[in-house]
């Protein structure tokens, strides 16, 4: 297999600052402030409120390298059903 064409994982949901979370790659050879930022709070009539859909988006983005590898394993016939269901559980907000 060739080397990944993206920053290798794991990617994690990092610190929360000012209504957004950073998506970080702690093992990346080059350190950025963040790979991505996801807004998780939206303005409401009485201030700001957390947005569950945005939090789910952050989990999905953070899981991108793992999902890519899982798809590769599926294509090659190596993925286990339990690995796939564990990943889906975490993406849907279950504990890691």
Short note summarizing the structure:
The protein is an alpha+beta fold and 96 residues long. The chain is 36% helix and 24% strand. The chain has one domain.
Fold and architecture overview:
There is one protein chain. By secondary structure, the chain is α+β, with helices and mostly antiparallel strands. The chain has one domain. The protein is 36% helix and 24% strand. It has helices at 52-62, 64-76, 81-91, and strands at 12-17, 20-24, 36-39, 41-44, 47-50. It has a three-stranded antiparallel beta sheet, with helices on one face. The longest helix has 13 residues, at 64-76. The model has no long low-confidence stretch (mean pLDDT 82).
Write the layout of secondary structure elements.
Layout: E1 12-17, E2 20-24, E3 36-39, E4 41-44, E5 47-50, H1 52-62, H2 64-76, H3 81-91
Antiparallel strand pairs: 1-2, 2-3, 4-5
Q: Work out the number of β strands.
A: 5
- The helix/strand order is EEEEEHHH
End-to-end Cα distance: 28 Å
Let me know the average pLDDT. Answer: 82
Most strands sheet: 3 strands, antiparallel
Provide the low-confidence segments as ranges.
none
Strand content: 15-25%
Total domain modules: 1
Structural class: alpha+beta
Shape: flat
Helix fraction, binned, reads 25-40%
Helix segment tally = 3
- In the sheet with the most strands, the strands line up as 1-2-3
Structural Rg:
15 Å
Keywords:
3-stranded antiparallel β-sheet, alpha+beta, single chain, 3 helices, about 100 residues, about 35% helix, two-stranded antiparallel sheet
């Amino acid at each position: 297999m060739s080397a990944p064409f993206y920053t290798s994982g794991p990617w994690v949901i990092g610190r929360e600052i000012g209504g957004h979370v950073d998506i970080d790659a702690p093992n990346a050879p080059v350190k950025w402030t963040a790979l991505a930022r996801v807004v998780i709070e939206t303005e409401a009539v009485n201030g700001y409120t957390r947005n569950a859909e945005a939090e789910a988006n952050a989990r999905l983005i953070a899981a991108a390298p793992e999902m890519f590898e899982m798809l590769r394993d599926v294509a090659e016939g190596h993925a286990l059903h339990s690995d796939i269901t564990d990943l889906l559980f975490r993406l849907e907000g279950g504990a890691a």
